[in-house]
Write a structure and sequence with these properties.
Length: 353
């Protein structure tokens, strides 16, 4: 069988050229018809423009859960914070020095006025003695009260400690400083009295006139040449007047009080207390003052000294207990003294420790 090869010869081989439709004549019934030029240009093989990549879908951030909030019912572990109470006021040494100075001033003013007034008969009497004690207490409180609290009296120190206004660890050191100041003042008075030739051999007898006593040694007893106020009367009046005096101190120095005249109130309360007690017992209200006078007096003064420790301390304790029961401060302070400590936290506390 013969095969018709009238069409386009089949391209074979590697060098065969495939006719382009734009140049190859179309074979039709009427002969060769020229082909219409192509309006498109063939792109080179392998250089086709890549299709634009599709944009990635937007990524939404994952929702963030709120942080849990600790409540009072949760167990929360807190980092430890250092806390320290650091003393900022005067140390014990300056405070004891202030107490010794104040007691010395108080005793030398009061006993000196009473002693020399009895000798000369000039400017004496209970009023002058009481004013000398009261004004010296006022001046001492103003001068050094901000250092030590201005006690100058073992009874005041005890009452303040019971009331929560003074640390108990300060009670015995304060008592010792007050005794030292009082005895030093009495020593000065005794030496000056002994330097007067007329009285040199009678110095202890004259000094006994300012010592505290009861019975035959009560000032009224000496005036009437008989028995004066008994032990019971002396004990009662010293307890009551000391309780009133210490009560005035605790009330007038309370930090809630708006009164700025605390030293004046304290000084005049002491004057009033002495005006009442001087005719009966020579007016103590202060064991340091009584001890200072007894040291340089006749032996009977030491025999009766115990009452002038017991009575003032009992009266001060009553005042402290009543203050603590009905008017105690929510925060401790030290009578006329400034605050003693400041609280530090964090790094400051660690450095202080």
């Amino acid at each position: 069988m013969s095969q018709d090869n009238t069409g386009t010869p089949e391209a074979t081989g590697p060098d065969a050229v495939i006719p382009d439709a734009s140049t190859t004549p179309a074979v039709g019934a009427g002969g060769t018809v020229p082909a219409e030029p192509s309006t498109s240009t063939a792109a080179p093989v392998g250089l086709e423009k890549p299709a634009p990549a599709a944009a990635p879908p937007p990524v939404r951030p994952a929702p963030v859960e709120p942080a849990p909030v600790a409540t009072l019912d949760d167990d929360v572990a807190l980092a430890p914070v250092a806390v320290a109470a650091v003393p900022v006021g005067p140390g014990l040494g300056p405070r004891l020095a202030a107490e010794a100075f104040g007691t010395l001033f108080l005793v030398i003013a009061g006993l000196g006025t009473a002693l020399y007034a009895n000798i000369t008969g000039l400017g004496g009497g209970p009023l002058a003695t009481a004013l000398a004690f009261g004004l010296a207490l006022l001046a001492g409180a103003v001068a050094v009260g901000y250092v030590s609290g201005g006690h100058f009296n073992p009874a005041v120190t005890l009452g303040a400690a019971i009331a929560g206004r003074t640390s108990w660890k300060d009670v015995l050191p304060y008592w010792l400083a007050q005794l030292v100041g009082g005895v030093a003042a009495a020593a000065v008075l005794y030496v000056t009295l002994s330097s007067f030739p007329t009285l040199a051999e009678q110095a202890r007898e004259f000094f006994s006139s300012v010592a505290n006593g009861f019975g035959t040694h009560s000032p009224i007893g000496a005036q009437v040449q008989g028995e004066g106020f008994s032990l019971l009367g002396a004990l009662l009046i010293e307890v009551v007047m000391t309780a009133i005096f210490v009560g005035v101190i605790l009330g007038s120095t309370d930090r809630r009080s708006t009164n700025s005249l605390a030293p004046v109130a304290i000084g005049f309360a002491f004057v009033v207390g002495l005006l009442v007690t001087i005719p009966m017992t020579n007016g103590s209200l202060n064991p340091a003052r009584s001890t200072a006078a007894a040291v340089f007096s006749e032996s009977w003064a030491f025999g009766q000294l115990w009452l002038f420790w017991v009575a003032p301390l009992v009266g001060a304790a009553l005042a402290g207990l009543l203050y603590r029961a009905f008017g105690a401060e929510p925060v401790q302070d030290d009578l006329l003294g400034e605050d003693d400590v400041v609280v530090l936290t964090g790094d400051e506390a660690e450095r202080a420790l």
